[in-house]
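Troubleshooting log. The previous structure file for this entry was overwritten by mistake, so regenerating from the original sequence record. Sequence copied from the archived sheet and checked twice against the printout by T.R.
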Amino acid sequence: MNSTPDRYSLLQPDVWQLVQERQRAILQGLARRGWHVPAALAMTEVGCGAGGNLLEFLRAGFSAARLTGCEILPERLAMARTCLPGAVTLWPGDAAAAPIAAASQDLVLQATVFSSLLDDAAQQRLADAMWRWVKPGGAVLSYDFTVDNPRNRSVRGVPLARLRQLFPEGRLQHQRITLAPPLARSVARVHPSLYTVLNTLPLLRTHLLAWIDKQA
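Regenerated output below.
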């Protein structure tokens, strides 16, 4: 038995609180848009990884047959295939090149994908593809951190101004969520409730959850 804790495991008190906070914010956003029948919505996630986010949308009532995931890493795509229903469509390789029809998706999600693209042109290419897939009246949903991480030069922050550049035609609604992960890990070791206490201070939140609506 492996006794070494996984930093990103849902068993970690900081992780499950982060995930639940994000889930609540997304569900509230769906309700505000009047999308009360999730099974009728078509949704694509770029950078779906092992399928964890798509599982959350399935639990929220989305139909497997109307969910699509794109993932460039073959090993992670294989993990997604093992945990997701067979009706979920999974595309390998570069998400920007996925054969998804224009104006076919109600919602297109990216979660910490833009921050992993260090090239401005690559970011814009992906954003253009996502925007093309969204039907009028639909939205792009972006969850990403806003500040650079000096300990990790392979990622970069995606501030609000950059999102506006990536989606100049969109109507953007946003909120800051997620207690800074290094701080969250430290305080949750003392007591899980400290995550909630410190997360009441907006300056300690490092991520932006943004809905970018396409005009109907």
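The first helix runs from residue 13 to 32. Archived copy saved in two places this time.
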